[in-house]
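Anyone else keep sequences and structure tokens together like this?

Example one:
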Amino acid sequence: MLTLYKIALGPVLIAQARWLRATALRLPEAAGPRRGVEGECSKSVPPLRILIVGDSSAAGVGVQEQSHALAQPLARLLSAVTGRRVAWQLLAKSGVNTREALDLLIRSEVEPADYLVTALGTNDVTSQCQPNRFIRDYIALSEHLRERTGARGMVVTGLPPLRILPAAPHPLRWYLGRYALRLDRLLQSWASLHAARRYVSLEWAANPDEMAIDRYHPGPGQYRRWAELVCEEIATLWRGDGGMPALP
């Protein structure tokens, strides 16, 4: 059905997409370190290690500093919850879809990690990646990360609710929202197939008033809430690690 709408609305969608690309406010990625260690806990115990991989939202577009984005606040929260130091690494780039993120990983230095966090999919929507290709790319990225890092658990962030995207006009906003929902359901279904994978929905972020000034990326409060939700899932994985199978 969505394909039929795409055909029927094709000229309008193409024109609106071109307009959006030409007029969208382009914000930089958050400044600051892309790795570090958070927490003042005992140094006699090895730190927990987390790796965050994603697109512009993972890179902190919408806030000025990494200290107000996702990765660094997540590490601080996780340290407070677990009583362990947390070593974190961020590998993210604006504009990448899932396949391009895998290419970026292949070219990058990736440190060992206990837990993975992914935030991808929006650019798969805008580049019109076919659903089956999207989930294949996500699985390939997950397998590559597991082999490179030895991670035991993974938190998968769902796609944002693009149906409320203030920067996009209708019917483009409606179409992007429906496409994002389709990919998101596939992602959630895949994540649910293994106990060492957890899915975090972004449906709660459907509030345009809390978004960044580009009306596209998360604002500070949304980044804070996102970090809290991911922290909860990693902490749950960490507490159950003794009897939980490692990532397949």
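And example two:
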Amino acid sequence: MIPLTLAEIAAATGGTLHQAGDPHTVVDGPLSFDSRAVAPGGLFVCLTGRTLDGHDFAGQAVRDGARAVLATRAVDAPAVVVDDVLEAMGRIAAAVASRYAGTVVALTGSAGKTTTKDILATVLALHGPTVANEKSFNNEIGFPVTVSRVRPDSRYLVLEMGARGIGHIASLCAVVRPSIATVLGIGSAHAGEFGSRQATADAKSEIVRALPANGTAVLFGDDPLTRAMAAVTDAKVLTFGTTPDCDVRATQPGVDEHGRPYFSLHHGAAQAHVQLRVHGRHNITNALAAAATAVAAGVPLDLVVSGLQSAELASGGRMEILPRPDGVTVINDAFNASPESVLAALDALADIAGRDRRRVAVLGEMAELGPDADQWHDTVAEKVIDTGVTHMIGIGGDHAQRMITNVRAGGVAATEADRALPLAPQINDLLKPGDVVLVKGANALGLDVMARELGAMTAS
């Protein structure tokens, strides 16, 4: 963290010091909220959860290396006592950001945020020290933790921003104002929560509205809702996509024999061939977003290409390939599931399987789709049939059963998983050596853990 004294933290948060000793003690490590992973020299945050209270771990956190804790009551440890720990975390992040002289990059979208963030962080790191969200820590807890990890020598701070409603992104941008803001496509994810794709776009556009006039909005030019955000900012606009008028665009896309995408990258008169290490044709768009964002930050194109080609997905559960000794390949794409991402994952399943391997799809029902839920699950069932899936296993409730019924009507084998029994063994019993298995579903279903368990098995 950019160093702050305990006295400065108390002033920034409106808190008081308790058992703090020297108020000029410097905190130069990041915020942490997990007592099992306390950051040395940092500040342990005493959050209260459903079953655990961080205040109970305050003393241990300091013994493990934290300089002090952030708490709402007196504890047996040096502390900054505040009224609201979560609000205080945001104020600390704002204090850190006010002293940060590097480039703040923010990104959002309905799908692909974390993958784009992982790719972008790899690219930017070739140009200078870079800090980015771990995993999908993009909410009011993960956001200030990420900001607190920035150092005085950090050239880039990459902040993935999620939203559950109007005003959420604006509140994050009020803590740390970006100079570059990237918006991916506006899909159907959370349409039931926001009300419509347009309402989702309005919420996501807050990231662009927050830009200063000398900033840059990096917009997905293939999506009319995202492209239209150019009208809500005075900042420079840079577009990416496959349409000919995009500033950073891809042509001649394809996949290699392992199902990994490639394309020709264009920016101005420059052109370069890019072979990605990540799987899935949809990741061409995410790579383009990362490339355009890096270009906006002033990264030379040769470094951009090098970063794209070396990038791997560090956050897990997203096109994570788990090869088994028996020749089975498990595709763990189970972190979450929007309709568009499920359709893209089924294409990736077909690409990775090629002509000779059986394709098995483990699909959980999708959530937060509102009145369009039936239609989207029908569309996924049609995609299962069209992409040559050999066997589909449905997980969930009525919408999973709806997919199973439609898939069977199309002549493809489909079964319903028994949630009362362990899932991985059920699925493994259906597999043969050499199969390719896609695991995809809403995060609430917890299929990520099951996919990893399945990846460690062998065929019966």
